[in-house]
# Entry
Amino acid sequence: MNDAIVMVETYPGFKGEDTPRLFTLKGQRLDIIDIVERWDTDQHCYFRIMASDTNRYVLRHHIDEALWELVMRER
# Structure
């Protein structure tokens, strides 16, 4: 899957960082049921999430650009 820019709604996490709560994929709004895993690099935060469509996804947040991308879908 090519990385695709997605619209993500967030809430402030434990340390005030942006934590995803839902995203829109191809016009479909998907609630984030669970954050399975999170990891950080110097420029990005990654979230492996379980969505309301029962798929797992990996979302990447570009910290400096306030941009979100869909990196992978896991079925």
